[in-house]
# Entry
Amino acid sequence: MDQGRGELEAEPDDGRRPPRAVVGSHRIEEEMFGRAFDKSILRRIWGFVHPYRAKVVVTIVAMLIFTGTQLLIPLIIRYAIDLGMNPARPDRSAQLAAVGAFLSAILVNFAAGYMQEALDGKMAETVLFDIRRAMFGHLQKVSLSFMDKTEVGRLMSRLQGDVNSIQEFLETSVYSLGDVALLFGIVFVMLWLDFRLGLLTLSVLPILVIVRIVWLPRARDAFMAAHETNSVVNGALAEAIHGVRTIQSMDRQQVNFSLFDDRAHANLRTHLVAARYALVMVPLVDGITGLALAAVIVVGGSMVMNSRIDVGVLVAYLFYIQRFFDPIRSLTLQYSVMQRAMASGKRLTDVLDVKIDVKDKPNAEVLSPEMDGSVEFRDVTFGYDPNRSVLKNVSFKVNPGETVALVGPSGSGKSSAMALVHRFYDVQQGQVLVGGHDVRDLTQESLGRQVAMVLQEPFLFTGTVFENIRYQKTEATRDKVIEAAKAVGAHDFVMSLADGYETQLGERGDNLSLGQRQLISFARALVADAKILVLDEATANIDSYTELQIQKALIKLLEGRTGLVIAHRLATVRGADRIIVLQNGQVIATGNHDELIAMGGLYSKLYYLNYASFDDLPEHDTTVQAGSQT
# Structure
């Protein structure tokens, strides 16, 4: 099975968390002009359409009726003209019948067309809804190893742009079938009315084929260039928006505007070229239509004068010729729609086929809320790349109610160890135990209820403060939320906001300071009431008053809980019951603050050199021996 990795950046070979995929790493040609017909992709799309097959059948029936009336109306007109121009056999009732048949055909044509469009649009929208739900549900379950190396913008493009391409394909596919049916129907009727005029009309088709052969590759190159410059402009826009503070602080507005202006002009030029190619096909088809009309009028008029065909036949032919080239024009334009749909379908199925590496066993246990809250690593070896270990034979135990700080230079494996407690990844060797149970034997839901995480960069969701605090425990009452906010010192600043707990937060809570977001995340963890707290201490610059608030909140948050803290500040470390020092993925020392100072080594060096943060030490410090573990 395709694991959806064909378009992803290769994993790094140093064993660390892989970087996000690079913008523009995909092939524009594959995105815009993939295979025009792919049975496997169509089967997958049909899997979403299949539940609505009854509506599809009704839509096709409506399409066939609509096409039939389009074929019938010129024949009725032909019949009416021939009756009216034959004074030798006047038949008033037949003429009235022709008029009635014409009006009936118009009404049926309208009704069938309306039903076809309504049912097709509703079916396409419903399938669009189902695909988005399926993708969102799957992305909520995929392992973080996939998210680590996949660009968020790429996934958003698939959830929006690619799904819309499938919607466009579904909405136009029935019309395309109708165009094919109409085309064959017109050819059959024209040859049936008069074989000679039919062949004359079809004689202009080679011209259209030659035009298409010449036009299509040039149009494809033009559309590809326009799509590529779109990506460049969108990337520049996104970068400028996200980096606006840096741009303004460096007074780079004019320089950046000039760079963007160059890219925007390049985008304009490619779009103008593409527009010229897009516009040329319609007048060409119209010209060929006019050529066919002229030929039929000249030859057909001569045949009428010689009484070889009736006037009604010639008039019907003129109607059919005008309609004959409409489906050809439409099908030519639908070709690119199908290409985009096949490419989009491939990218969507790549996401839906991504393997879920971390999932519950068939008979997974439910972690009891009454478990003791202990955390233990037994000979754990782990790496994002199995061939490059981030943690190497790590063993330690955190006793119930104990607060343990993990310290070490950047890249030493602290965050990886935290991620394993919540089972974001599975270990390659050894065991991670929570409450005495291997996390791989537990349901992820029950594990998540007993392990609360507070990230270094607290993530708040769009919504109210109240909704964010009870995010993990939606049944929490307002009194419980306020009690938690008061306990961590967040209540006063929340009440100072415009609408208190009902204040709407912006994207990621950007309308709050980092310290305020951290306190909200503390309150959220307190409401969750988990036995184990995993916390990555914020490292960003915050004022001393906010830092004091956070330290007080942290003490309250850890009361009666097992705490695993990635510590960056000395104040946090000194308050821990025990400290585990990591370097190069190995435990090199354990003990409390005084014990580690007396022991010497990395921790003592950091302390006496007065580093502001434990992350300031280079990852590979040769002055510290890894064998000093206790």
Q: What stands out?
A: The first strand starts at residue 375 and ends at 382. The domain at 375-616 is CATH 3.40.50.300 (Rossmann fold). Residues 236 and 260 are 7 Å apart (CA to CA). Confidence is low (pLDDT under 50) at residues 1-36, 619-630.
